[in-house]
Amino acid sequence: RVRPRAGSSLEPQERSMEAPAVPEELPPDAAPGKGAHELFGYVGIEAVLDQMKVKTMKTGFEFNIMVVGQSGLGKSTMVNTLFKSKVSRKASQPGQEERIPKTVQLQSVTHAGVGVGGGSILGEVDPPQRGAALMPSRLTSWDPIIKYINEQYERYLREEILITRKRKIPDTRVHSCVYFVPPTGHWLRPLDLEFMRRLSKIVNVVPVIAKADTLTLEERAEFKQRIQKDLKAHAISVYPQEDFDEDPDDRLLNDRIREKIPFAVVGADQEHQVNGKRVLGRKTKWGIIEVENPVHCEFPMLRDLLIRSHLQDLKDITHNVHYESYRVRRLNESNR
């Protein structure tokens, strides 16, 4: 060991190195029992994903679903099944439930889930009288729906163009519209075709066959093929749209989903005992139809599409495509 000369610049450095180490102060938010060195670990994309997850869990996010279809197709029951919670509000009189009225007027119901803060927009639509479904001289049944969707875009646009705007703009835009097709087993009605044609231009439309347990498996398969032919013949683009498949892996997944659309669903918000387990289902004289059993119906596919696998994609397409089209049109009108 070489000793430095007296007064050398190395002497204080040596003394500081030989001094006992003082433990660094832990940050106030550090977990107990963990050293400061554990705050600096592996750097990679996982760290970014963890940050996004923690931030999302703290701030929450909005995801809005609209259900559309004629009355009696089980729209409220389907949303109850989707969120496993009652969406009907309590009436002023005890022992009664306030039912959503069977009109073309929309009412909003909010459901907050654990880890998922969001809402579901319910609107029961009664078709107009026979022969007047497509008459432009009177108010058609899709006008309130389209007006509501555009109003949410307008509300978001007004907040966005403010000079001093909120850090987080409340998002009431409709991210997905689940359209209920009655289980006739025949072709799509002209009202359904025109409805979906208009809606598909401004929102993500996911068609489903309501009360699919009223059809046999053969009838259900034939009805699906006829609906797919009708949608293709009338150039109705339902979600997931082929034009937005950028990644090859996404295209393969979405192709499998498109083969199953429209989903044949059965809604039920009551539990039954099956083989010692409590399952959601509908009891009939032939047995119990298990809602979450893929062999019985395709509700699990619809639930996974809306909540598990494509939720963020629904939000992205709503913001980058449908809302962007509305924003460009409105700003052009303002400039003129």
Features:
336 residues, alpha/beta, Rossmann fold, 6-stranded mixed β-sheet, 3-stranded antiparallel β-sheet, 9 helices, 11 strands, globular, cytoplasm, nucleotide-binding
Sheet with the most strands, sense and barrel status? 6 strands, mixed
Q: What is the class in the CATH system?
A: Alpha Beta
Count of DSSP E strands?
A: 11
Arrangement of strands in the largest sheet: 4-5-1-6-7-8
Spatial separation of the terminal alpha carbons: 84 Å
Structural domain count? 1
**Fold-level CATH name:** Rossmann fold
Shape: globular
Q: Which regions have little confidence, pLDDT < 50, spanning 5+ residues?
A: 6-20, 89-93, 113-139
Class derived from helix and strand content = alpha/beta
Query: Which architecture does the CATH hierarchy give at level 2?
Result: 3-Layer(aba) Sandwich
CATH superfamily: P-loop containing nucleotide triphosphate hydrolases
Work out the helix count: 9
Helix content class: 25-40%
Q: Beta-strand level of the residues, as a percent range? A: 5-15%
Radius of gyration: 28 Å
User: For the residues shown, what is the average pLDDT?
Assistant: 77
H/E series: HHEHEEEEHEHEHHEEEEHH
Domain Septin-type G: 59-333
GO cellular component, one term: cytoskeleton
Protein name: SEP12 protein
Keywords: Cell cycle, Cell division, Cytoplasm, Cytoskeleton, GTP-binding, Nucleotide-binding
